[in-house]
TrEMBL record, chain A:
It comes from the Bacteria. Keywords: Membrane, Transmembrane, Transmembrane helix. It comes from Flagellimonas pelagia. Signal peptide: none annotated. The keyword Transmembrane helix applies. This is Putative zinc-finger domain-containing protein. The keyword Protein biosynthesis does not apply. It is found in: Membrane.
TrEMBL record, chain B:
Residues 24-90 form the RNA polymerase sigma-70 region domain. It comes from Flagellimonas pelagia. Gene3D superfamilies: 1.10.1740.10, Winged helix-like DNA-binding domain superfamily/Winged helix DNA-binding domain (1.10.10.10). Coiled coil: none annotated. Residues 116-166 form the RNA polymerase sigma factor 70 region 4 type domain. SUPFAM superfamilies: Sigma2 domain of RNA polymerase sigma factors (SSF88946), Sigma3 and sigma4 domains of RNA polymerase sigma factors (SSF88659). Belongs to the sigma-70 factor family. ECF subfamily. The keyword Cytoplasm does not apply. Pfam families: Sigma70_r2, Sigma70_r4_2. PANTHER family: RNA POLYMERASE ECF-TYPE SIGMA FACTO, RNA POLYMERASE SIGMA FACTOR SIGZ. CDD domains: Sigma70_r4. It comes from the Bacteria. This is RNA polymerase sigma factor. Keywords: Sigma factor, Transcription, Transcription regulation.
Length: 263, 174
């Protein structure tokens, strides 16, 4: 390198941006080479001119506008919020309020939830009851159609489960009372119906049963019930029973005893 | 904070610490302004464009992925200037005329300064830009290569050649 010109390295040499060894090599070469010395001198003058060049300075406006833009961006981002001690105090108070509010919200929603839950349970319960009644009714009606007399009695006895039996049940009981071949079933059906004597249908059925019934004990029971509710229409069938030869004597006596109270 | 490199700071800015951009602004806004002023010769325009460069820094902070910060910054600055001149229907050559005119107009210019300016104005715009970046903005050859899309060796050779040429012009006129 000592014998080669170093023209291409002069700018960097003057900038001092070369490594130590290269710098030393260039210095050694420069000592012997006037041409390169001249080049260094000239380049030094140019670079000095650059260094002495007046560098324009931007106005303060630039900085303030930049900071404005930065603040705007920070606000838009909404993430970095500097907390001064003042706002910290405020935050403490507001966080207590926040906690209080959240507890209140929690309690309120719990209450609301339990109210709704209760309503729902009630509704479900009602539905279940309803369903249960329907099932019982179905069971009752089908039991009453059973061939076994004891099952039919069991079916009739189900009437206790219903507070307000509907027309279908009354009709089924009436069928048992009027048409069942078994005395016990008819008697049970009568007992069931006797609880609902306020119903016109039931009254009508009882009068019909009085006309048809052959079993004396059931006849007595029907007569007693009809007298108890003071059913005037029962007088006619009772008179017929008196005239009927098949009627048991003690039944006739019974009728004779109660008939005056009906007419 | 002073000890942190531009790249580390910019990385933190990209992650959301916007306040650190102030540090980068303080470090570099004069260089950017100076470069734009040398290129355009217009103080107001240079301020507006410098402003624009740092707006873009805020806006595109998340697109910064390490790499030389200075290269990134001056790439944005060059693009802003180019966009400005394209928008105002001026070719790159016109910048030369602009710079020349401003050199004539500035009154507080020293003798030395005017000579240098005149010499610079006789370079091609591309050469002049390279010299501005190399001489005034203290940009390393590696970063310069990145900005210009070249290799550090090629840039070094080019800068050296331009300086030689400029020196001839400069000494002629003195």
């Amino acid at each position: 390198m000592e014998n080669e010109h170093v023209l291409d390295l002069i700018p960097e040499y003057l900038d001092g941006s070369l490594d130590n060894e290269t710098m030393k090599n260039i210095q050694r070469h420069l000592e012997k080479c006037p041409q390169c010395q001249q080049e260094v001198k000239e380049m030094e003058a140019l670079l000095k001119a650059f260094k002495n060049d007046v560098v324009p300075v931007p106005s303060e406006r630039l900085k303030s506008r930049f900071e404005e833009a930065l603040e705007a961006e920070k606000a838009a981002m909404g993430k970095v919020v500097p907390l001064s001690s003042k706002t910290k105090k405020y935050d403490w108070a507001s966080s207590v309020l926040k906690i209080a509010a959240s507890i209140a919200l929690l309690v309120a929603s719990f209450q609301m939830g339990s109210v709704f839950q209760q309503k729902k349970i009630d509704q479900e319960l009602a539905e279940l009851k309803d369903e249960n009644l329907n099932m019982k009714q179905t069971a009752m009606l089908s039991l009453m159609e059973n061939q076994s007399a004891s099952k039919r009695i069991q079916g009739v006895a189900y009437i206790d489960e219903f507070e307000n039996p509907d027309e279908a049940i009354i009709q089924a009981l009436a069928n048992r009372l009027l048409n069942d071949e078994n005395d016990n079933v008819r008697l049970t059906a009568f007992e069931a119906l006797s609880k609902y004597t306020s119903s016109e249908t039931v009254k009508h059925v009882l009068i019909q049963a009085l006309e048809k019934e052959k079993n004396p004990s059931i006849q007595v029971a029907i007569i007693q019930t009809l007298v108890q509710i003071q059913e005037k229409k029962a007088a006619e069938p009772m008179k017929k029973l008196l005239e009927n030869e098949d009627t048991q004597p003690f039944i006739k006596e019974q009728i004779k005893a109660v008939l005056p109270s009906l007419t | 904070m002073e000890a942190l490199s531009d790249e580390m700071i910019m990385q933190k800015v990209a992650e959301g610490n916007l306040d650190l951009l102030k540090v980068l602004f303080d470090r570099h806004h004069k260089h950017v302004y100076n470069f734009l002023f040398k290129m355009s010769g217009d103080r107001m325009l240079s301020e507006d464009l410098t402003q624009d460069v740092f707006y873009k820094l805020i806006k595109y902070r998340s697109s910064y992925h390490m790499g030389s910060f200075k290269s990134w910054l001056f790439t944005i600055a060059r693009n802003s200037l180019k966009t400005h001149f394209t928008r105002h229907h001026k070719t790159f050559e016109d910048i030369g005329i602009l710079a020349y005119q401003s050199a004539e107009e500035v009154n507080d210019m020293t003798e030395n300064n005017a000579h240098l300016q005149n010499a610079l104005n006789r370079l091609s715009p591309e050469d002049r830009e390279l010299i501005f970046l190399n001489r005034y903005q203290e940009i390393r050859y590696e970063d310069l290569a990145e900005i210009m899309g070249s290799t550090p060796g090629a840039i070094k050779t080019k800068v050296c050649r331009i300086l030689k040429k400029l020196k001839e012009i400069y000494l002629e006129t003195i």
